[in-house]
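Thread: Newbie trying to understand structure tokens

Hi all, I'm a second-year student working on a class project, and my supervisor (Dr. K.) asked me to get a predicted structure for one chain before our next meeting. I've only ever worked with sequences, so writing a 3D structure as a token string is new to me. If someone could post the tokens and maybe explain what I'm looking at, I'd be very grateful. Here's the chain:
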Amino acid sequence: MEIDVRVTQLLCSRLCHDLIGAAGAVNTGVEFLSEDGGGAEAMDLLAKSADRLTRRLNFFRGALGFGGGRQGPLTLDEARELVHGWYSDAKPQLLWTADMTAAGDGGVLKVPGIKMLMLMTLLAEECLARGGDVEAHVVTLDEGLGVAVRAAGTGARLSDDTAAGLNPSCPPDTLTPRNVLAHWAQGIAQSQGAFLEAETTLDEVRFAVLLP
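---
Reply by user tm_fold:
Sure, no problem. This is what the structure looks like when written as tokens:
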């Protein structure tokens, strides 16, 4: 997987975009505390904003950082917790439980695949502007390991930006902060000898990859 400087810069821009809202809310809470009568409301805002910022930072550390696990390599079980943390205040509902990952949490899915799966859940969220359900699956098949994320809800759609980012032939100089995560997820898939596909039907978008 070749890394372009522009891609790295776009990843940083995307991270900052997704973190600045929560960070700004923390600052607002601090300002409220400095005003008369802002105690209880400000503390509530601070607590919620700091929690959201921490959850998002932990998610990106797992999905994009080196290693990413609490005590070493990232596990599928840890990834599930991090994704649940991201989705705890998201518009769509996450449907990813232990029994939905038939491959289990015993190391069947390697770290690159786990990180790719986490990014796939973000791509799925972006398909559901009106909310809906996001389902994550990891299953052992005869042909290999199947990783899939389904976004279902009214008006679910794959944006042209994301579709372009998933195209392996997409030139880095045409990428934007809006689709760089799709490009990165596709790069991970290709580094594992696989291809991340997206299929759109009525009110549904499916992301899937078969890892050999």
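A couple of things are worth pointing out once you decode it. The chain has a mean pLDDT of 87. The two ends are 17 Å apart (CA to CA). Feel free to ask follow-ups in this thread.
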